[in-house]
Amino acid sequence: MNLTTTAKPIVIIGAGIAGVHAAETLRNEGYEGRIVLVDRDTQLPYDRPPLSKEFILGELSEADISLRSNESLTALRIELKLGVEIVSIDAKKKIAISSDDEILEWEKLLLTTGSSLRKLQVKGSDLEGIHYLKTLSDAKAIRQKLDGIQQVAIVGAGFIGAELASSFKKQGKEVTILERMPLPLAHILGEEMGEYFLQLHQSEGVHVITEDAVVQFDGTTQVEKALTEKGRIIPCQAVIVGIGVIPNTFLSDKELHVDRGYIVNEFGETSLPNVYAAGDCAMWPYRGDNIHIEHWDHAVNHGKCVAKNLLGGEPISYTAIPYFWSDQYDHRIQYFGHTKNWDSAVLQGNMEDKQFTYFYLNESGVIDAALLVNQPKNALAVRRLIKQQQSVDSDLLSNPEVNLKNVHVQENEDKVSY
After folding, report:
1. CA triplet 404, 320, 89: central angle to 5 degrees?
2. Can you give the CATH number for the domain in which 170 is found?
3. Which phi and psi angles does 279 have, rounded to 5°?
């Protein structure tokens, strides 16, 4: 730890997953100066993944999903400022200004401002019963309002929409998913996997409508039905909209480079001196491209890595393999790596058995990403193979008798053996 302790603190804007883990990492790395963690939310930091699953179902309480207590943050001498909205920063003066004109001085600044939900702007979108799920308050409202409601419409078949459909089916509700694209998740996982997840929802009794979109909600004060472009009428007493997110880049500066998210280098540095960014709000370099990841694992690891770089010394490159998971019905879904385009896909296992690994390979036969369905035993091996970036024989990957743990790169040779 090389950062000289000064009267000015390290300020972290955003008390979500990335911000909390960054603050803790600073202390764990031996930083003795002030740490100020600011958030516009009034809730203590909490974990978001359970909101669409265990919390909605009432299996976990608010206390269960709390990230850290006031006592634990106080013990680490982390100054938590809730309900404070930072509206501007000045990198030259090293200050952040709140909506109440409070001025926070800083020695170094970390932006972990997260992301915001895309809103659906159609006629009737202001009716009661139309919900979005991002915050604990959102989840509490949905859990309360959906008690006793039988018909639920979900707009968007992404991971949040899919998880909510699974949760609501467990409660015995009639669920309709409305998706603009031809297949759920196909833009991420490909058409074959999109078809698999379509059939998964249908097999669980969810009504899935694709290649259509909501144009209007009807009702007096409470939503009663959704109308679509193709003339469908979907009866519903509640609607959950999940159509993606937008990184929060409201803190602007003419010299702060933004392209969807705050652009950072491999060390988490923005284009402004002494200003860093991590987590959902950042665009970071991954294998020759700048990418944006909105998942728990990335927020934790990016926050920790960038926090270490705040302290000076030899900078540490962020090289983590992207990873996320989703629980739907009886499926544990895990995805490793990142790719927008792949040249071939290889299946190991049987989709009918709901237990398989699906590999995404580039033209050189290198695994860029992999989808695991109910095969957590393959997780470590898959992560290792993606990290090694060596060509792998497709026949080897597709062979169900091959244990991926035993697939390895031969020393000094550019190939993989078993």
Report:
1. 160
2. 3.50.50.60
3. 85, -150
Residues ≥6 apart with Cβ < 8 Å to 264 = 270, 276, 277, 278, 282, 283, 284, 285, 306
Residue range 29-88, pLDDT digits in tens:
999 999 999 999 998 888 888 999 899 889 999 989 988 888 999 999 999 999 999 999
Asked if residue 85 is part of any domain, the answer here is yes
Residue 317 domain-assigned (yes or no): no
CB atoms closer than 10 angstroms to residue 6: 13
Q: CB 150: neighbour CB atoms within 10 A?
A: 13
Which CATH number characterizes residue 353's domain?
3.30.390.30
> For residues 417 and 370, which has the higher predicted lDDT (pLDDT)?
370
- Judge contact between 112 and 279, C-beta under 8 A: yes
pLDDT digits (tens, 9 = 90+) for 260-274: 999 999 999 999 999
> What are the tens digits of pLDDT across the range 349-407?
999 999 999 999 999 999 999 999 999 999 999 999 999 999 998 888 999 888 888 77
For the chain, what is the mean pLDDT? 92
Tell me, yes or no, whether 230 and 256 share the same domain: no
Residues 104 and 27 in one domain: yes
* Residue tagged 């009428």 (tokens): 233
Q: What is the C-alpha radius of gyration for the chain, rounded to an integer number of angstroms?
A: 23
Whole domain around residue 78: which residue ranges? 10-116+246-310
What pLDDT is stored for residue 67 in this prediction? 84
For residue 357, tell me if it sits in a domain: yes
Do 282 and 115 contact (CB within 8 A), yes or no?
A: no
The answer to whether residues 198 and 59 belong to one domain is: no
Q: Are residues 135 and 235 in the same domain?
A: yes
Does 322 reside within a domain? no
